[in-house]
TrEMBL record:
Belongs to the bacterial solute-binding protein 9 family. Part of the ATP-binding cassette (ABC) transport system ZnuABC involved in zinc import. Binds zinc with high affinity and specificity and delivers it to the membrane permease for translocation into the cytoplasm. GO terms for cellular component: periplasmic space. It is found in: Periplasm. One of its GO terms (molecular function) is metal ion binding. It comes from Geopseudomonas sagittaria. One of its GO terms (biological process) is zinc ion transport. This is High-affinity zinc uptake system protein ZnuA. NCBIfam families: PRK09545.1. The keyword Disulfide bond applies. Residues 1-32 form the signal peptide. Keywords: Disulfide bond, Ion transport, Metal-binding, Periplasm, Signal, Transport, Zinc, Zinc transport. Its main location: periplasm.
Length: 346
């Protein structure tokens, strides 16, 4: 990505404005805090930075839940309807939310529609990879069906087919890559919108929200510079992922994965698919393979057995992070540490 598209965040922070905003941090908050609900943890982390000292945002999805497949509970629906402000990525990610949001009276914002965001779309290279995966799956399903009476895997085959279909629907060519929170410049735009919304809902704390926003931008700019410096020497190192979730982060820091294995978290891939993945790893030579929760680390071990491959994990959703000021930066920092920690050893 060129600096014209994703500018260095340090160039966007007027020092005088930051100093003026920080002087308001000790002001008394309003008696009733604004109830903020986000669909996923990364949005909660951004909201926590903006709302720090004036409230604690909540998150809808529990740790380990997939935003593609989550089934809302009655308690979730109640939280959706009671929140003062609700933020979600959009229908390309949380497919379970649009119908429930129809019953809300308070503001809801699909952040993918905020002006100023840099958005990516899945391309032709991904389509060809998915088609190959689907063909390999079909062959595997026929083989398993022939051995069904002996192995009893007929039900698993149907589940595998459903998983492939769901993956294709979520990542079809030309569709929005909804993992937009992994671009620091996008996080800054989202935080600014949250600060404006909170100030409107809670005017007594408007200065606090602006001070928190300025502090967030300053921390993010410093982290952005550190990540650029650490990851720049690693741009030609090959690595593979199991899910095309990290393209925004890769684009920001000049990285490019060598392949995407497109594996479902719920279904074990067939023998032909595993063999094809191992062929990619053999051709790449020394490389890193990054799994992510809740995908099985055992599969990564199977793929890499006997090959010059290092294994590590990347978490795009920050499942284990606390919702506090600095939490979003920790999400990006952990991604950078995970990538660099493996690639630097190749």
């Amino acid at each position: 990505m060129s600096d014209a598209i994703v500018p260095r965040l340090s160039s966007l922070l007027p020092a005088a404005a930051l100093a003026a905003a920080l002087s308001w941090l000790l002001a008394t908050p309003a008696l009733a805090e604004v109830r903020v609900l986000t669909s996923i943890k990364p949005l909660q982390l951004i909201a926590a930075a903006v709302q720090d000292g004036a409230g604690t945002p909540e998150v809808l999805l529990p740790p380990g839940a997939s935003p593609h497949h989550y089934a809302l509970r009655p308690s979730d629906i109640r939280r959706v309807r009671e929140a003062d402000l609700l933020y979600w990525i959009g229908p390309d990610l949380e497919v379970f939310l649009p119908r429930v949001l129809e019953g809300r009276e308070q503001p809801s914002l699909a952040v993918q529609g905020i002006p100023g965001l840099h958005l990516r779309h899945f391309g032709e290279a991904h389509r060809h990879a998915d088609e190959q995966h689907a063909e390999e799956h079909d062959e595997h399903a026929h083989e398993e069906h022939a051995a069904e009476e002996h192995a009893g895997h007929g039900h698993d085959d149907h589940a595998d087919a459903d998983a492939v279909e769901e993956h294709d629907a979520a990542h079809r060519p030309g569709s929005l890559d909804a993992h937009l929170w992994l671009l620091p410049a996008n996080a800054r735009v989202i935080a600014a919108r949250m600060a404006a919304d909170l100030a409107k809902a809670d005017p007594a704390n408007a200065a606090r929200y602006q001070a928190n926003l300025a502090a967030f931008e300053q921390r993010l700019a410093a982290l952005d510079d550190r990540l650029r410096a650490r990851l720049a020497p690693l741009k030609d190192k090959p690595f593979f992922v199991f899910h095309e979730a990290f393209d925004y982060f890769e684009e920001a820091y000049g990285l490019q994965h060598a392949g995407v294995f497109a594996v479902s978290a719920e279904v074990q891939p067939g023998a032909r698919h595993v063999a094809a993945m191992r062929e990619q790893l053999q051709a790449a030579g020394p490389s890193c393979v990054f799994s992510e929760p809740p995908l099985r680390p055992r599969l990564a071990q199977t793929l890499s057995a006997g090959l010059p491959v290092r294994l590590a994990e990347l978490d795009a959703l920050g499942f284990a992070l606390q919702a506090e000021a600095g939490g979003y930066e920790r999400l990006l920092e952990k991604l950078g540490d995970g990538l660099a920690g493996c690639l630097e050893k190749l």
